[in-house]
Amino acid sequence: MAVKNNYIVIPAYNPDVRLIALLKELSEKLEAVLLIVNDGSRLETKEIFQEAERYGIVLQHDRNYGKGKAVKTALTFIREQMDSGRIIIADADGQHTAADIARLLEAKTIEKNVLIIGSRCFQGKIPLRSRLGNQLTRAAFWLLSGRWLKDTQTGLRAFDSTLIPMLLEISGDRYEYETNMLLTCIKEKIRIVEVPIETIYLEGNKSSHFRPLKDSARIYMTMLKFVSSSFLSFCIDYLLFGILLSLTSGLGVITADAVSNIMARIVSASFNFIVNRNYVFQYKGSLLQSALGYAALALSILAVNTAMLLWLVRDWGMGGLEAKIVVEVTIFFLNFLVQKFFIFKKRPVHTAL
What we know:
Layout: E1 6-12, H1 17-29, E2 33-39, H2 46-52, E3 57-61, H3 67-81, E4 86-89, H4 98-105, E5 114-120, H5 128-145, E6 157-160, H6 164-168, H7 176-187, E7 191-197, H8 212-219, H9 221-247, H10 253-280, H11 287-315, H12 320-343
Parallel strand pairs: 1-2, 1-4, 2-3, 5-7
Antiparallel strand pairs: 4-6, 5-6
Helix pairs in contact: 7-8, 9-10, 9-12, 10-11, 11-12
Keywords: Membrane, Transferase, Transmembrane, Transmembrane helix
Pfam families: Glycos_transf_2 (PF00535), GtrA_DPMS_TM (PF04138)
GO biological process, one term: protein N-linked glycosylation
């Protein structure tokens, strides 16, 4: 039996009878306060939530705000109305079993500065969009955080209530909140522990309210902004390179390529620094320090960039414009990782608990 002051938070949007079955089993097997958040569900689900009130407390949203907002509503309620304790976040569609919820709730590792996540193994018959989505998200998350997690999209999570102030400050009202929670925990040195859970996809995962395009865009927003910034910088770089290449053609192929590449890179790198600092990574640290760090990176990349460019032109016989594209694509991810983890790395801002 779980200890006292346990809370199980279940965001629910247009749930069916599987929610009631889960609540019934949880109330029978666990000693915990069940908090169900009606996230602006249709009127047809009114009876479901009325039945849910037999097992726990139902919090209401006047419209659909998203899973992140629903979690924050429940956490605010716990902070203001309840005692401290252990908190579980679980899905309402039956993809998290009562046994797995109990496993996380009773984990001995739940303490201050620890986030426990239920990690699915993704073996067996998994819907294609779910398998690909999780693989892409794991890779993108590794690029963003430097930490490899087996399941970054799991909705089953456990933590001590001392983390509530920090969790309420995390941005995002929809599914991106779950990814932002993981990123924030890594930034704040909160230990993340993965606990294996059962992998369940019901009816090809039709019950999921995840919107592949919109919600993926929210999750990958930092990466998408970096790609956009890099693409604009590349366009400036490539355009100037072409113009300068034609103006310096009388200097000889190798000299013209080198001079044009260096001059175009200086302009595009300056643009890239301003955009990445202010809009992509939203860095608030020292301007001088970040500028010096970026300048060192830019010079290093410029040296590698130019050397690779000349090598492709001279030894492989490629045209200058074609070689330029190959070089830029090659160094893109290295550029992102260095900027993310060294140039614009945010210092942890610890929340008073």
